Amino acid sequence: MRNVTILVLGSVLMLSLVIGSSIAATQADNGVIIGQVLNAKDRSPIVGANVVVQGTRYGSATDLDGRFAIQSIPPGHYALEITALGFATTIQPDVVVTNARPVELNISLEPTTLQLEEVKVTAGYFRKPDDFTVSTITQSNEEIRRFPGGFEDVVRAVSILPGVAQATPGRNDMVVRGGAPSENLFILDNIPLNNINHFGTQGAGGGPQSFINLDYIDRTTFNTGGFGVRYGDKLSSVLSIDLRDPRSDRIGGKANISASQFGFNLEGPLAKNADGSSNGFLFSARRSYLDFIFKAAGFGFVPEYWDFLGKVNYDLGPRDKLSGVGLVVLDRVKLFNDDADQRYDNAQTPFPSLNQYIGGVTWKHFFGSGYTNLTLGKNYVTFDIGQNDTLMQQFFYNKSFEDETSLIGEVVFDPADDLRITTGVEQKLVRFNADIFLDSTEITPVQTLYLNEHYNSATFKSAAYVQLAKKFGFLTTTLGGRADYFDMIEDGWAFSPRLAMSYQLFDNMKLNASVGRYHQAPSYIWLVANEKNRELKQIGADQLVLGTEYFLRSDVRVQVETYYKDYFNYPASTTRPWLVLANTGAGYGGATEGFASYGFDPLVSKGEGWSRGVELLVQKKSSDNPHYGTASLTYSETWFTGLDGIERPGAWDQRWIFNLGVGFMFDQKWEVSSKFRLATGRPYTPYNPDGSEDVEDYYSKRTGINHSLDIRVDRFWRFANYNLITYIDVQNVYNHKTDYAPEWDEREQRAIKGDSIGLLPSIGVSLEF
After folding, report:
1. How far is CA 195 from CA 180, 182, 582, in A?
2. What is the model's pLDDT at position 487?
3. For residues 153 and 209, what is the distance between their CA atoms, to the nearest angstrom?
4. Quick check: pTM over 0.70?
């Protein structure tokens, strides 16, 4: 397969280079940065703010509407510095100027009464929302795009951050501070989602590839613990994704091909408003091409996916903004069972086909001292999953759908300069339907299951929260409480108090702390097979985070944090007393894991666990220095206890994880970046001679140390009316073989380790016009 991939992608790259070289004479040097600078509190325009392109003579001042325009800028990567009297200075890094489209920015400045000049500057490079006092990192579109080995995937880009472990190489099953892949919340333009990956795992949060188009992402905010009460029904992390606004000058687009897909974008204005603002739209369509390569290489399974994304912005007035987002995601797997090897390989995994439809409309209204948000969202996903034996007899299928309609209302207002109050309510109507068949599959030497279940439910989830953020000189305190209710289980109520504090010890140093309780409802699929499972409680975790931030300079941050998580009420199996569902959810599951992630066992809320760790993060943002980088080091332990009372390490307990990602922009044409990752082994269970798991030694063995190096080289071509980017991305440069946990081979009657992909080169081409 690798040779076919190199041949196809290499041909595309050579073609792009030929095209670029042949028309280089049309290159021109003129770009535009336009935007508006507003007061973050009341949305009023800031008059006379200075907007300067760092390291150049280019700049502008805002007019009576807070608007600015900087003309005739040579294409390249820049950072903007925005200053205004009475407001915290902000720096906007990673501003990429091209000839294809103007850079359009909406910049909000926070009023300030503190005269700490260094803090004013660093706030621009390392901004945090009010709800994220600790364990937070923001990434711009450009930072995600150039991430080596990430396939321009927003989820893979956070895998380099501290506290994040990879459950399985090549997938987006995030394990954050010891938590299961199901414990991560995704938010897209204020719409909560359970999963943002193609071929997603039901009841969890992973998959091989994100379906959010990076081209339309403005920035992401990722928090690995200690988040505020606005975010609920998840225990471990929040990944908030903000889509950018459409371009306002004319209709434009982009065509691209990357390591696994090709696609087309289109965007532009719809109409001009009286105040000069513009309504507009975004649209993209993408398709994978791996099915063509897999077919040519003779694989027995052929994945294929499509995704479509659209967004519309409409300004109802100076203080009223309306936006709508829609996504359609189609995932298919075709199986070819022409020979014994293909039939055996295809029998090892339940291959999923999914349809997902996501939509939402948000109305944001600004008033004198704050704003309101009202979001109506829809998330509908169908699962069609099956597994056959080597004789092509189907012994498992799952045909189900999850339909969530959510309404979120929120008010944020500042009754005083040093006080912010946030309050909100959430109502989610849920329809869940499951048709499941499992034919007497041997789960353990003492347990078999036969299921022929149909379950249909209409239920709801509700939540309400209030939060106060108060400044006492150099101390900022955030106190909040959240109440959640889930009607599908008998004990559905949960209350989550949270407290966070940040103290400005020196001009360039902060001390941060957070303590709180977090709750998460059991996954819908866990409530199907056994009626007793609907007696489960909300899963809980108490979390404590202590840390410090030190700014070596305005664009370099050093962060050290320690955390402790105490899990309670985790669903545990009564028939497999060693099994806690916190250790499930990665991969596609099925027979090889005894269908543990589906929750088919009788479950009780008596699983317990804890996780603790220390994390170091050093981050250098792109600024007037043409280099950037992120280094993280994590030491952690995670342990869980099932009904047998034996404490065992968690399934993804990797004690040491080291990540290093660095990049350098040689000039406005060439950029090189690399990523190195090292992680110690994770636990696995050895096999008995008959092929069953040796549960007496459950999670007693560990894989070896895994490490890899990825390198990416970008070449930028700037032309009069369009922009071309080509890149080469090589994963696992020195071809280190991943040490997987062994799996039982029925043909050879022994445990063997799976093959590693090894060195994997890919290319990408993007043409923006």
Report:
1. 13, 9, 17
2. 95
3. 7
4. yes
